[in-house]
Amino acid sequence: MRKLSRYLKYFKKEVIIGPIFKLLEAVFELMVPLVMASIIDIGIKNGDKAYVLQKGGVIFLLGLCGLIFALICQYSAAIASQGVGTKLRNDLFKHINELSHGELDKIGTNSLITRITNDVDQIQLAVAMLIRLTTRLPFLIIGATIMAMALDLKLSLIFLIIAPIVSFVLYYVMNKSIPYYRIRQKKLDKLSLITRESLTGARVIRSFSKQEAEQRRYENVNQEVTDVAIKVGKISAFLNPATFAILNIAIIAIIWFGGIRVDQGILTQGQVIAFANYMTQISLALVVVAHLVIIFTKAGASATRINEIFDTIPTITGGTKVCKKGTPKLSLKNVSFSYPSSEKNVLTNINLEVYKGETIGIIGGTGSGKSTLINLLPRFYDVTEGEILLDGNPLYEYSLESLRNKFGIVPQKAVLFYGTINYNLRWSKEDANDKEIIRAVEIAQAKEFIDKLPAKFEAIVMQGGKNFSGGQRQRLTIARALVGKPEILIFDDSSSALDYATDANLRKALKEQCKDATIFMVSQRANSIKQADKIIVLDEGLVVGMGKHDELLESCDVYKEICLSQLSEKELEEGKDNENN
Fold first, then answer.
1. Which of 52, 92, 249, 468 has the fewest other C-beta atoms within 10 Å?
2. Within this chain, do residues 339 and 388 fall inside the same structural domain, yes or no?
3. pLDDT tens track for 529-580
4. Is pTM beyond 0.85 here?
């Protein structure tokens, strides 16, 4: 919590004004028992109705002023708590976007969602309670004790006896609760994971008739969350009755011993009632303190989880160099890579040099490292060994923005965002003109189906592009990458949903319209890459072949096996003829 207190500096006025007005409310509240005592000892004792009405009016005014002060404090607390929540979420979201793929994989998407929503909500509540109650409650408890001591020092010893007993109860509850709240937040992460998987994979679940199995899985985890909540609820439930029992015993003691002091003529009846009122104020304040302990316990657990994200330092940071315009050349020198959670290399000793305008085909079996290789180029991950050079300089010397602006990336999974087609196409270049947009969709073979839509480029794209077919989504993501006219294009098996004719037209358009671009084309189809200037064949993270189509047919058994499983003899010969031409 202490680390996150820095956000309060943006709301200094509210943090100061709120407690001051809450303090004034407490002062007025402490005056009420004294006025009540005077009503009993003077007004009621003497039968003076005018005095009773007069002092009753004073109590009404004290209550009205207290209400106004409380509303001002509440307003200040609302501004500060919501403001802190907003700034915290913004900073958290910004920091998450600075993390590399490795850190995101380690923390987990579902945990990040829970932390940026549920955990931040707990911090907001804690800030509101901090402003509203943390100054009022101690002042009210201490003030009521002092006022009672001023009335009768001996009788006020009851207060001093009760205070440590109640404090022990509060400490016991807090000490037992904190671990459970941390466990509960982790269980919520797991529940969020299952919910996300069930919603995104709804079609797969239904196609395998696994609704009941998924329902049971969800119910089991939900029950785990419930069990933890019940355990911590049982501990918290002990708080109120224990506190009330102790304080009611204290009130009985005050009335008992206070009656004796009245018989002795040391105290008046009104003063005993004032004593009881002060004890009631303390009891109510301590009950609120008990709830406050629970709130801050939850917030402490949430703050720890939020700070874990802020303390996660991005392993991939940009340098100061800006990519200069010119020949974009990529060189991979003895590159090896393994994921943080794995000791085994996914890629081993990769050496490659690529020049401007070249088309590089990458092919291999499932798990051979194709996607991993192209994820290293825009520095989504840092290499474990070796280095990658762009224009002769290591990637880490370039700013990440400058580096990634050089790339146009079409991911394996077509990802679109809610909005219009126009909105989605302008991601790489917000100020792109209509000519650039049309050029991109024409190359991507998307213009034909866009023109058939009633709203054309203003047609709505639903979340994830669910209102478009797989091939249409792929063509839109290809067009999105082309709008910014990147110098390096990466296609990560991004034409798998296209029919052969559309795929062939796409490759032809890329060759004609993107002559200056360096293109990396990952594909499972040998037919899609056989015209590439250079083909890289991967097998279990190793380069087992590199060259043109006809060369690899002669020298690389893995490539030949892939081709023979997909292409006819005629297509193989056509590939050779095209290479020779």
1. 249
2. yes
3. 888 899 999 998 899 999 998 888 888 888 888 888 876 666 666 655 555 5
4. no
